[in-house]
Amino acid sequence: MTRLLQDFRYALRTLLKSPGFAIVAIAILALGIGANAAIFALVNRVLLTALPVRNPDELVLLRSEGPISGHAWSDDDVASSFTYPMYRGLRDRSTVFAGLVAEYPFAASLAAGGQTERANGELVSGNVFDVLGVTPALGRLLTPGDDRTPGAHAVAVLSYAYWRRRFGADPAVLDGTMVINGHPYAVVGVAREGFTGVQPGRPADVFVPMMQKAQVTPFRNGLDDPKDYWVQIFGRLKPGRTRAEAEREVAGTYRALLQEAAVYVSGWTEDTRRKFVEKKLELLPGGHGRRVMRDGIGTPLLSLMGMVTLVLLIACSNLAGLLAARGAARQKEYGIRLAIGASRGQLLRQSVIECLVFSVLGGALGLGVASWTLDALLSAYPPDSDLRLIAVPMDPRLLAFVAGLSILSALFFGVAPTLRAARLDPASTLQGAGRGGSPATREALRFRRVLVTAQIALTLVLLVAAGLFTRSIRNLGNVDLGLRPEHIIGFTVSPELNGYSAERTALLGRRLIENTKALPGVRSATAAVLPTFTNDTSSSNMTIEGRPETPGESMHVRYNAVAPDYFATLGIPQLQGREIAWSDGASAPKVAVVNETLAKKWFAERGALGARIGMGAGKEADIEIVGVVRDSKGATVDEKTEPFVYLPIQQDQNLGELTFYARAEGDPAALGASLRAEVRRLDPNLPLFDLKTLTTQLHESLLSRRLVMILSTAFGALAALLAALGIYGVLAFGVAQRRREIGVRMALGATPAVVRGLVLSEVGRLLAIGGLVGLPVAIAVGRAVRSILFGVPAADVATYAGGVVLLAVVALAAAYPPARRAAGTDAMDALRTE
Predict the structure, then answer these.
(1) Number of other residues whose CB lies within 10 A of the CB of residue 640
(2) 555 backbone dihedrals φ, ψ, rounded to 5°
(3) CA distance 369 to 365
(4) Do 228 and 222 touch, CB atoms closer than 8 A?
(5) pLDDT tens, residue by residue, 571-605
């Protein structure tokens, strides 16, 4: 221990004697480790952190790919949605699960203490807390007895975070009630701290028994509907069972349930019915919760993690090169220490400790860089976004990651120089071999050339990746949206959560639209059920009057319910017919407006106007098409254009939530206060949310991709800078060691141009080798990230050529100062010195 302390003190003294070297080395490490730690913090929370439940590795998420008939709801993957009768059958008949739970997230209007606010609710089966192993922090949790009879047990459990935020952790909450979507509920308990449901990024504020479905979602019960797919199912495997074994054992039970459900399906071909009955039930790992967030941003995060890892490798190789040069400069010191009795093991230990000192200081500073970087990244997201809701800057796993990364970095950039130092021969080292002639010096130069070649290859990979992401986001920015988002502001209300019927919601929508139109500075106003650029969609099969059903043909369409002036307000051109009007009321003939893709696909010959359609397979074609509008983007900017149907909000029997849009004469954000006042005037207890301009919503929908582009560009620039430093260091070191050779060449008649070419030819060789190594890796990286690119092929020739050219410019800029210094060498002075 005493020797280790002495070695540490000696290492610190050595670093203090070379403050410039120490500062550069620690700063490079801090940037590399800090960037890695920041991205890892997000990867950890999104992809690695398990649910805070008992034995999360035993949990499975049920999924079944294949045809369905009826209504389907999902905020992620429709194949993970089941009917409640199917859940009930699997729960009661299967023998592979220790417990099977059902879950459904819903928007909640919570009223307590005279204040109403919007919150996140979760309908759950009564066994959920028992199966997951969650204990109460206060009171009791839900039990199977609370979930046996529809509407019988109006009880609720609060999440710990919501209890603290909304009620100040007051235990008296158990003595009161709260109104959830217009119905009173007794608060019976608070879940333990940390548990907020099974969907990361969407923390539940309140848990309600599944049998309360009709109360919290009044327009769609679904508890007994075999054609309503809305339940998400989690299971806990019995001890000792594997997922593969459980899938095989439950297959027979699931097939029998599908055969029973097929009785209720009509209008299907025999082939479709066969595919429905033969659907496979998959059991996916469920320990990390539902996959909504992971599927959305998991690939971009892993791409960024790979890029920052390359940056760290470049930083470490740069430091290894610096240490190699420093080791060559200190070879006389090493020789003296070996000559006076120091062992090679002591020399090796001393060098490793110096590297560890670098790494510890760089890692400590890297934590600060990570915290700052993470704050900067998250600040770009809205306060209610998934990442902002789950991100925790520092936790034990992150600290362990930084510590491990620091140690690995020390070993990576320190092991080769220290091994060379340990192999020194003291006699030859002390005798010397003339400046530039030392074997250690030549070996250090060769080692640095190898490192710089690796840096060039890795930098090329990063520059190509940055180019691909930049071109992708540029293509997204140039997409024809089919509408004009400028000067539009929107907001959302959910009257159904306050007990409104569909008729009252439609009446409220009309009054709010008319009042908004009357505001100063408003050109037009409208409303829609589905908001724009929020990735919300509704879809259905469609029936066309007089068109026979063709086996295998997809009649799938997307739809939205809209108010009058919707197309005029959003700037969607009307091509034929008319818009939706207020005269298209609940008792009026049913009408629809369709987009041009639908009109061209099914009505190219006879024209769409006047044709009649039905929403649903085999449904009566009782809806007349009265207009055709231009194709436009609805859910996302990069969505594929599909057939689309616009229906009147007044003819929507399940109308419950509306998003309003107002087109302003000037700055739309200036209307915010007036719009809030109008909503309060019509209903003071109706929460308003998501008040923002449409351009802001558009920007937020592309935010993750923009951040990937910005970060990849920053990483590419940092890698190019590090590579430039490496190239400069190698060439400057080489010129210094070859000073006598250069002097001889110039004495024999070599011109400055020839000497410059000699130095630049070396960087050309490094570029050629690095490019040959880096290009195949860059192509592989491009293929790996092609799922998050838009309009850019994975092997885009222009991007790869641009990366090569940019790297060549950086390399030549770094090589020019050493080349110029070599060309300015005085031959006689160089020969005299040597």
Answers:
(1) 6
(2) -110, 30
(3) 6
(4) yes
(5) 999 999 999 999 999 999 999 999 999 999 999 88
